[in-house]
Hints:
Blueprint: H1 14-20, E1 27-28, E2 31-32, E3 34-35, H2 46-58, H3 68-88, E4 95-98, H4 101-113, E5 121-125, H5 134-137, E6 145-149, E7 151-152, E8 157-158, H6 160-166, E9 171-177, H7 189-198, E10 202-206, H8 218-221, E11 225-229, E12 239-243, H9 245-250, H10 274-294, H11 301-328, E13 333-336, E14 350-355, H12 360-369, E15 372-373, E16 375-377, H13 382-387, E17 396-400, H14 407-421
Parallel strand pairs: 3-15, 5-6, 5-9, 9-10, 10-11
Antiparallel strand pairs: 1-2, 4-12, 7-8, 11-12, 13-14, 14-17, 16-17
The chain binds pyridoxal-5'-phosphate.
Amino acid sequence: xxxxTPAVVSKFDVQWSREQFPALRQTVNGQPAxxxxxxxxxxxxxxxxxxxxxxxxxxxxxxxxxxxxSERTDQIYSAAHAAMADFFNCDPDEVVFGANMTxxxxxxxxxxxxxxxxxxxxxxxxxxxxxxxxxxxxxEQSGAKVRTADIRPAxxxxxxxxxxxxxxxxxxxVAVGYAANAVGTINDVGEVVRLAHGVGAMAFIxxxxxxPHGLIDxxxxxxxxxxxxxxxxxxPHLGIMYGKREHLERLRPYKLxxxxxxxxxxxxxxxxxxxxxxxxxxxxxxxxxxxRRHAPEAPSRRAALAAAYAAMVHYERELAEKLIAGLLxxxxxxxxxxxxxxxxxxxxxxxxxxxxxxxxxxxATRLGERGIFTWDGNYYAIDLAERxxxxxxxxxxxxxxxxxxxxAEVERLLEELKxxxxx
Length: 423
Ligand SMILES: Cc1ncc(COP(=O)(O)O)c(C=O)c1O
């Protein structure tokens, strides 16, 4: 935590958070709905819904026009970049908006591909979502070679020895996830950036799964690029990428002639999702307000965000401890990922399991009927599902918590799973 982070002064007020999210009031077959699908996409606070509809009602226009709604749109565009700059800890013009993380990453990989030479290498990992693999593998068409760092299957952590051995003199880019969307492992991305820079390579961080669970600080990480998606951290369906100024200025994205050479313009092709940007501002302000409830003296929005994450990390860890301890007691259950509580600072509250007698789909269906929303399959972490030997048999069941979940919800899930195990 940075020195500007104020101390967290009160217990996490989950009821206040839950009241902000109207979707959490839904029921399924008479049971309260339990949203354990956060890694697939989180719910949004009322203020995000309001900001999107207010934009469409009062400000809907294209940018740079000489009239009121266009001027309002320009303001929202600037405010969205400022909000994400606080979120990443960078300058607003180092923030690039796009349709989603996948689209932004492909745009970046195409631009990087223009400067690669035959024999150049890129490094990806087995642990990652395919959106941080395929955009780099595509560059093999330019003559580059893609290597893959392995995991330690026993706890689904990245094999840092293997990764280090594969960062070589001709490595140009290391692409790694901040946290694994399938099994929750948090990687030592600071060390990955250091290793990449040691050979003159760039480091690209996929922070999509990490963003709802931990504070991002691109300055202290010193990464070259970092991408995330606001629908995973309480906002609308949009992707956002940080790029170090020197790279955003040097690289040559494919762009229209009409698009200026200014940052971030040259990277933001076409008309942006303005209503989505209004929603992103509201999502960041929700998080900052959550932080101020715990640290009323927070001197800036960035400091308030840091306080929010400090509070959420602590609360989510309590929930994860309860969840994992309970799961490990269920007979016939196989757990994938870190189970040692001493290492819980290396995981998010996202867990993956299988249970004897059920395919992951059957389990997800049974839970879904009882109002408990989980995911089954590989969640696009294709290489991981193959490495763990579950790709051909339905993948895993993923239970992904967010700060709006409660201990009572975890208990209900554990009871349902125990009942299913005993059938
Ligand atoms: C870790 C991770 N990376 C990348 C993505 C792709 O993000 P998007 O849907 O914004 O393209 C996801 C989506 O699930 C993800 O979980």
